[in-house]
């Protein structure tokens, strides 16, 4: 018990110190890639792709929820004997 707390403490301290060691220096002029995309007008393409992926995930989750709801409704409307047969 005591050894696991010791190792957990060491792990936590290593993780906290690694964040400061691997941190990037702040950029004075901003993010060059984002500025370039804004200047070229391509930032809207990036926004559109991210929005399309997000909408696709939402549609998928809604359809999955509808299918699960239908299955749950079918299970609850069947008699207990039929449920026992399905589970075997």
UniProtKB/TrEMBL annotation:
- Cited InterPro entries: Put_ccm
Q: Which domain of life is it from?
A: Bacteria
- The signal peptide annotation in the UniProt record is 1-23
Q: What does the UniProt keyword field contain?
A: Membrane, Signal, Transmembrane, Transmembrane helix
Which stretches are transmembrane? 43-62
Pfam families to which the protein is assigned, alphabetical: CcmD_alt
Name used for this protein in its record? CcmD family protein
Species, as recorded: Spirosoma oryzae
């Amino acid at each position: 018990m005591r050894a696991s707390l010791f190792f957990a403490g060491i792990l936590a301290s290593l993780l906290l110190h690694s964040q400061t060691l691997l941190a990037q220096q702040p950029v004075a002029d901003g993010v060059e890639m984002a500025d370039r995309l804004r200047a070229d007008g391509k930032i809207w393409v990036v926004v559109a792709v991210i929005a399309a992926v997000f909408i696709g995930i939402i549609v998928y989750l809604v359809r999955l929820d509808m299918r699960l709801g239908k299955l749950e409704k079918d299970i609850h409307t069947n008699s207990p004997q039929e449920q026992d047969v399905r589970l075997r």
